[in-house]
Amino acid sequence: MKKILFPTDFSDVSKNAFIYALQLAESINAEIVTMHVYQLPQANYVNVSEYLHEIYDVTELSNFENYKDEVPVLRKIAEANNLGHIKISHALILGNLVPEIKKITENENFDFVVMGTKGATGLKETFFGTVATKVMNDVNALVLIIPEHCLYQPINKMLFLTEYKSEDTATFSTVLSLSDIFKAPIDCLRVGTSQGGILNDCRSDWKVLMEHKEVVFHSIEGDDVEGIILNFIALHKINLIAMHVYHRNFFEKLFEISLAKKLAFHINVPILGIH
């Protein structure tokens, strides 16, 4: 059985992302391990030593009680989506979030990490908004990021952002495998300037991998890379973006573009980072 790690901070953003974790578990026959990572308080005031143990005990107990209260909430979300049969277990861990995610995915062979994020819009960033790209960069499992207002939709159309280079071939193979699971056709898209040609174009080699699969190659010239991609997503009704992790700058920019452009295109699409 495959394994999905679901880091949670108990927020609405996180609970919304949990539906994607459940649906993914159903699609790939996986179990889910929810994970909450907490830190002990920094105690810098005078004469703290005599109270330190008590402070730590209270903090740990508080986190345990919060987590214990949240477990039934997650189970209710599963049952409300007719996915109560999915195996779900839970881990409460003391530490720093990104290193702990990295450690547990490596030690226990998780296939996916699914987590919610809130974009940087000039307002105060949430807990996950500050770490989503770090997790995508540092963790070797497939990392599925669910934006704040992304309401669950079945994966019917996938977009693979690529430069048609040989280093994208393994990632393309992974996307093809997911296409089989979701029964979803794939649009491959490269966006570049008119000055920048495609070197070592691998599309002819990729066609060997595509037998009996619905894949369309696109290449669009233009300087407004993010704008072109957002327009493509809206036009082609994309509901999952996949990318090789070295394209992560697009992920960062996607949540930093102007609010007007966000509202215009309603970008609420899951993003899958693949090492």
Automatic annotation (TrEMBL):
Domain of life according to the entry: Bacteria
Pfam families: Usp
Residue ranges of every copy of the UspA domain listed in the record: 1-147
Coiled-coil blocks: none
SUPFAM superfamilies: Adenine nucleotide alpha hydrolases-like
Protein family (similarity comment): Belongs to the universal stress protein A family.
Protein's name according to its UniProt entry: Universal stress protein
Origin species: Flavobacterium sandaracinum
